[in-house]
Predict the 3D structure of the following.
Amino acid sequence: MSLSGHSLLMLMKYGVDEKRKIIKGRGEIESEIPDQVIEEFRHKIEIVDLRGQTKDQLVRKMDELAKVHKEPFSTKPREFPKSEPKVEVLPSEQTGFYVQGKTVAQTWLKLLNEIYKYGRPKHTRYSKNNELKEILNLTAVVTEEDPAKVYFPEYLPFERGELEAYYAEIMTDREVPGVAYNYGRRMRQHFGVDQIKEMKQLLKNRPDSKKMLAITTDPKLDWGRANNGDTPCLVMLVGSVQDNKFFLTAHFRSQDMVHGWPRNTFAIRKLQKEIADYGEYPMGPLTMITHSAHMYGDDLALVENLLMDHYEKELGYTPAVHFDFDKRANMVVEVIPITEAKAWSAWSKRYEKQAIPMAVMVELKRMPKKAQRLIRCTLYEPNGGPALKMWEGRTAQEVAWQITDWGYLKDAGHAMYVGTELQRAEEAIVTGREYSQDPA
């Protein structure tokens, strides 16, 4: 999937260009390794390509090669200066990131944006200059992708046929020669139980159960490979029914978010549909939780171009609405006569025992002494339902803190819009004008 085998063959055949990139392949060679050493490696080492061969073919070839005597590439190890990460990073919380999108592609661009901006530099043996960008504990939610008719834009880093071929890695228990593990096999056969089948049965018979899970980690086997082999990146699937929909969560210990994440997510969404259909439930969102969410240094230029060319287009904003649909709230801001207040009397009693915040005091100094008007913000159900919560105050800041202190708004675009409208409402009181809420 990473095309490392192809890149090695291209290195041996064509070498590297003036920027140290492998010609016709992916990846780069560290600048600390001299050109003459690369050329010596290319001319002294012969690559035997056994990709796709069966186990028996592999054994026969190994026996054949064991009879061949060749002088070693070098009589002693050579050491080169240590390569230091050179990627830039913006300050962040470092852990607990969250993105959400309707489709796999849209969500992918959003998470690439997070990692590109906030990923911390880290050493790796899989990329140029041993560098990657990593954020920890990223939650990515896909809400509407239809596995039967996936949204597959041209900018995804693989072909549609590659995705179709990859589905078997999740959807079947097939064994791939030369591959250390297969997710489908681990979940359906490796432990002597078909965990996907059991999840289906439990969903149909006990939909309220919290035991619908499938694991891939084999502690004894995988810890034995911790220093010299591959272990599954997908650790566990967990399913739940809520509001008569089947939700699925996938936990990954590590993911290449550029090339691996979209493949994994398309395939797991397809598996979610299979399980949901068996239990006769519609699908809820798919949640992908990744501990080490990273992109390799080789892909930074690709990601930069992807974001510049497609990120804003995929956000799907319109002239009328320029923020994501907020599943928590629809906010209406008004300016009302103080005689019509419903929440202010009870809330303002706190000032009998505590001081008015300094920022509010500053704003009050510019308010008309006999304004007799308040700002009201009302939270409605996002689907057009009834009013659920109301806040009132004399200034924009006084209302804003009532909302933000208790976490009623999560979407940054929506929060900034509401803040702007609160400020406009305050200006209307200051100037004695009428106020009407602008469209988002």
About this structure: The radius of gyration is 28 Å. Strands lie at 95-101, 120-123, 131-142, 213-215, 234-242, 245-256, 283-296, 330-337, 373-380, 387-393.
